[in-house]
Design a protein that fits this description.
heterodimer; A: 219 residues; 7 strands; 54% helix; 13% strand; elongated; B: mainly alpha; Butyryl-CoA Dehydrogenase, subunit A, domain 3; 3-stranded antiparallel beta sheet
């Protein structure tokens, strides 16, 4: 395994200069290679085009594997436990969705499962599946479609909104009974942080450039 | 140096991987995603999602979002009556969060998208830089409206304590969730590059390529 060399631009398939079009104003311009930590901005509208995140693959791998571990904890342990007399209620994400289903809102329940379980899992798992082997210059089978899928899932992953929902619900619950915050809540906070850090860890263009090289070399 | 747009040279950047290739190829040579100069039928699609979400916004706000059964009999709350009761009880923070997420953000998002669509169609004139900033903002805050749906789901799961009280989701919850999803689709189908096209004098809003 190669040691990390700081302040290098990421490799590209072609040595020839390439062009990018700004996603906001479509200005065609040359895409310079950037040292780590730098960002390129559009020369017409100033929108950020791409950036070279330091230790991108290592960060994406580390944070997405940490997020996966947190995800297991989130589903295993309740985030809030309410005890009122002999009645005890425990809240997990799936329990909230199941309650919606039981109360006659199957569509909302399916949506909630998609936004808080499936989309985050595809996002984090997909990133790990692609980024970890790329550290060794390898693309696993289906890496291209996995990347496409997790990019599509990104806007629909709403764990941070669910976390805010838990906080609001806590304030709303008031004096229903004895309220305990559980491991699930801290794990959810960790999951939200790690997911955000993993996604911010690597630029979309860098991921595709590296993926292109890995796929090119395989056959 | 004269700045030219990629579309003027028949080049399209891939929606997924960002590679710039001739639009005539049809599919991106790198990730096989479909290539378009602009998002296809961007304005039509945005208007459709927008109108649908505006229509659903009425039932979402007029019908009860949840019914709390207690000692004094069942009590239905719409989004606004929930906010008001929290304000009266002195829970200003909860009232402010729910008001911002469930009422302010959806309305502002719809108004912003209407304005963006009008600007992209050339009906209003504003600096494309500010409009782009507005578009960024609508994309960023839209998802947070979903918080009320989650709050109801969490309360339903936690407060089914039979003897004490019950929380039952109301019919508004489905329409409200649909409003959030539809405005997200509206923001996704809007192509901000149309704003600059208008600014530079090109009209690509009907490009189907």
């Amino acid at each position: 395994m190669k040691r990390h060399l700081p302040a290098l631009s990421w490799p590209r398939l072609d040595d020839a200069p390439i062009q990018v079009a700004c996603p906001f104003c479509d200005a065609l311009q040359e895409a310079p290679r950037l040292p780590e930590g730098d960002a390129a901005h559009c020369c017409r509208c100033g929108e950020m085009l791409y950036q070279n995140r330091p230790r991108s693959l290592a960060r994406a791998t580390a944070f997405s594997s940490a997020a996966l571990i947190f995800m297991v904890l989130v589903h295993l342990f309740p985030s809030i436990t309410v005890t009122a007399g002999s009645v005890r209620r425990e809240l997990t994400i799936l329990e909230a969705a199941a309650a919606m289903y039981r109360e006659g809102n199957p569509l909302v329940a399916v949506g909630a499962v998609f936004f808080t379980v499936i989309a985050p899992l595809v996002l984090v798992g997909g990133l790990l599946y692609v980024a970890a082997p790329l550290r060794f210059g390898i693309a696993l089978p289906g890496a291209k479609s996995v990347t496409r899928w997790f990019q599509l899932c990104e806007p629909w992953s709403m764990l941070e909104v669910f976390l805010l929902g838990i906080l609001v619900a806590l304030l709303k619950l008031g004096s229903v009974g004895e309220i305990h915050l559980g491991v699930g809540l801290w794990a959810l906070a960790g999951l939200v942080f790690c997911t955000a850090a993993a996604m911010a860890g690597i630029d979309r263009l860098e991921l595709w450039d590296r993926l292109e090289i890995a796929l090119h070399k395989k056959p | 140096m004269e700045i030219r747009s990629a579309a003027a040279q028949g080049l399209a950047s891939c929606h997924l991987c960002g590679k710039v290739s001739p639009v005539a190829l049809g599919n991106c040579p790198r990730c096989h995603g479909a290539l378009h100069l602009r998002k296809p039928r961007s304005l039509e699609r945005t208007w459709c999602f927008l109108l649908a979400s505006i229509a659903l916004y009425f039932p979402a706000n007029l019908m009860p979002i949840m019914t709390v059964g207690g000692i004094g009999g069942p009590e239905s709350d719409t989004i606004m009556s929930g906010v008001i009761s929290f304000w009266r009880k002195g829970d200003l923070l909860v009232a402010a969060i729910i008001f911002a997420a469930s009422i302010l953000i959806p309305i502002l998002k719809m108004l912003a998208l209407i304005w963006l669509c009008l600007a992209a169609a050339g009906k209003t004139h504003a600096s494309p830089k500010n409009l782009a900033r507005l578009y960024h903002l609508t994309e960023l805050v839209g998802r947070w409206s979903m918080v009320d749906v989650f709050v109801v789901a969490i309360l339903v799961a936690l407060v089914q304590v039979g003897a004490l009280s019950t929380v039952v989701p109301g019919p508004a919850i489905l329409s409200f969730a649909a409003v959030v999803v539809l405005t997200m689709f509206a923001a996704m189908s809007f192509d901000p590059r149309l704003l600059w096209d208008r600014h530079t004098g090109a009209d690509l809003s009907d490009t189907h390529e």
